[in-house]
Structures are given as C-alpha cells and as structure tokens.
C-alpha cells in the first residue's frame, strides 16, 4: 500500500524504529481490523496526521471511520476519553482494540470542518456552544492524565533539555506558569477536557450537528478548553483583532472573564510550542507564534478578573 508521505514522515520521526516497524506491519493490521469488524468498501481518508484513517461500511451498511495508530499512551487515552464522553458531543465510539491500536467510530457526514464556514466570529460562537455541552465530570476510576502533568513536564524539559538555544523565551514560560497557577488556584470545576479542541476537530454531522473528534483527554478546569482554539487558524495579517474577538466571544458565551480566557491562551500557546521543540519541528512561523504568546500575556496582565473584557479594550 502507498501511504501518505506526511504520515510516513511523522510516524518515523516521532516513534523512530518502533514507528518504522509499525508502518511495515500496517497493511497486516488493517486486514486484521477489517476482518474483526467485517468492514467493506474501504477507502483511505483524504486527511490524516500521525494515525492512519480510512472510511468503510459495516455489514448492515453503517458508514464508519477506522483509525489505526502506533499503540501508545496517548492513543489509549483517546479511547478512554471517547468512552467517558459516551457521545456527549463527541463522535460515537463503536469499538476499540488496544492491541491493534484501532478505534472504530461512526463516520460523521458530511464531515464539514468548522473552519470551512469562513466566518470566524460564527465559528468561535459554535466552538463555545460545543464546549458548553462537551464536558463531563471526572469519573471515580480513570487513567486520564492531569493537564498539570502536561504543563509541568513540557515547561521543565524545555528549560533543561529540549531548547538549548532558548528559542522559547524563558520569561514567557515563567508567565505561562504563573497564569496556569492562577487558573488552577481559582477553580475547582475539574472535567475531562478534550485537550486539542480546534477548527479541524469540530465537524458537522447530519445526525448530531457540530461534533467533536480526536480527544487527547486530560483532567483540568474546563476553561482550559478554549486555549487551543484561540491561536488556531489565525490570519497572517490582523490576527490580533481576530484573537481579541475570539476572547470576547468566549468570555461572553462561557461566562469567564477576559483575563481567564487570555490566561488559557497563554498557557496553551507556550505548551504547544514546547511540544514542537520536543518533536524537533520548529516551523517558519515560530516568531509569529511567540508574538501570539506575548499578545496573550499582555491581554492577561492588563485586564481585571472582575468581569468580561471591556468593550473599549477589545476595540483597540
């Protein structure tokens, strides 16, 4: 089989020899998955990142999506998160097999990605509505990691191992840590977070409306869910105005102060860049991403936590 070059490159880079062995065995894994669930009419999905995805149908004609990845903790957490959500705003989970590293889900149709609407304010309002309906309380028994573990590990290793050239300004990490302490210190509304909620992970379904896919799964205050969305798919010009409007909408729709929303954006912007350093993938837009972190830092530092963003602040 000819797999997408981007999939091959990412799996090889991220998983090394284990990834190479998995790629070599992937045709066999797919045959085993198809036999296990009696899938037919299989077709490779037009989009995939670090996991292989194909569309298929069950014996009774139900359209499904099969996701197969290198078995590793993050994939297992996705399986658990989908089970915990139990279709509360997420794609319905049909079955999962840890040994095969496979997840079988109902296929969302038409599967329009949120960004395809072409109206950023409308997209942000929809994302806020999705967030309102998504979260579930933390189960008594679970193995979903705390969001704080992500932050502590990434910030610590960026300082001492991943970033010897200090591409990530250390004072920006310090600010993100302070913002995270503020977020977690003020709130006890712990939920199972998606952890990677952005425009490409919110899809339109003709049965369920706007539906979430690909949860990473983490436990933390629910306000943290806005962080990834804030800096995703920003335009090259005028992104500051777009981010201000996103902050305003999230603040208004979710009931958090603008300061809290900006703090979540700061934490996630720094966290995601730290993960890029771990992955050894520093893109050409790195300077802009640091500017975006600085922007969230300034919005967090300059705005009171006593209420939503002031309109005059947002219009600057």
Give a description of the structure:
By secondary structure, the protein is of the alpha+beta class. The chain folds into 2 domains: 103 residues, Phosphorylase Kinase, domain 1; 203 residues, Aminoglycoside 3'-phosphotransferase, Chain: A, domain 2, CATH 3.90.1200.10. It contains 10 helices and 10 strands. A 5-stranded antiparallel sheet has the order 1-2-3-5-4. Strands 6-8-9 form a 3-stranded antiparallel sheet. Helix 4 crosses helix 8, helix 5 packs across helix 9 and helix 7 packs across helix 8. The longest helix is centred in the first third of the chain and has 33 residues.
State the main characteristics.
316 residues; disordered C terminus; 50% helix; globular; single chain; 15% strand; Aminoglycoside 3'-phosphotransferase, Chain: A, domain 2; 2 domains; 5-stranded antiparallel beta sheet; 3-stranded antiparallel beta sheet; alpha+beta
The helix/strand series, from N terminus to C terminus, equals: HEEEHEEEHHHEEEEHHHHH
The percent range for strand residues is 5-15%
Radius of gyration: 20 Å
Low-confidence stretches: 304-316
How many helices? The count is: 10
Largest sheet: 5 strands, antiparallel
Main-sheet strand order equals 1-2-3-5-4
The first-level CATH class name of the largest domain: Alpha Beta
Helix content: 40-55%
């Amino acid at each position: 089989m000819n797999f997408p070059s981007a999939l091959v490159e990412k799996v090889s880079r991220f998983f090394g020899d284990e990834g190479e062995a998995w790629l070599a065995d992937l045709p066999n894994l797919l045959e085993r998955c198809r036999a296990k669930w009696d899938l037919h009419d299989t077709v490779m999905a037009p989009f995939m990142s670090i996991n292989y995805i194909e569309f298929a149908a069950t014996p009774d004609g139900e359209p499904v999506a099969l996701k197969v990845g290198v078995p590793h903790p993050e994939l297992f957490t996705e399986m658990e998160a989908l089970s915990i959500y139990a279709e509360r705003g997420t794609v319905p989970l049909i079955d999962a097999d840890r040994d095969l590293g496979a997840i079988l889900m109902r296929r969302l149709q038409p599967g329009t990605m949120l960004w395809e609407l072409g109206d950023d304010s409308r997209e942000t309002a929809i994302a806020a509505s999705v967030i309102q309906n998504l979260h579930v309380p933390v189960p008594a028994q679970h193995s979903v990691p705390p969001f704080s573990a992500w932050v502590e590990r990434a910030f610590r290793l960026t300082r001492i191992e991943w970033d010897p050239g200090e591409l990530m300004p250390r004072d920006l990490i310090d600010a993100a840590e302070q913002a995270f302490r503020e977020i977690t210190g003020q709130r006890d509304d712990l939920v199972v977070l998606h952890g990677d909620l952005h425009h490409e992970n919110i899809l339109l379904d003709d049965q369920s409306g706007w539906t979430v896919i690909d949860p990473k799964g983490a436990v933390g205050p629910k306000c943290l869910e806005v962080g990834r969305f804030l800096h995703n798919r920003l335009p090259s010009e005028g992104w500051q105005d777009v981010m201000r409007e996103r902050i305003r909408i999230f603040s208004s729709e979710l009931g958090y102060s603008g300061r809290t929303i900006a703090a979540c954006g700061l934490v996630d912007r720094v966290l995601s860049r730290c993960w890029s350093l771990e992955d050894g993938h520093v893109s050409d837009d790195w300077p802009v991403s640091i500017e975006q972190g600085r922007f969230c830092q300034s919005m967090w530092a300059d705005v009171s936590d006593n209420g939503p963003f002031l309109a005059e602040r947002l219009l600057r």
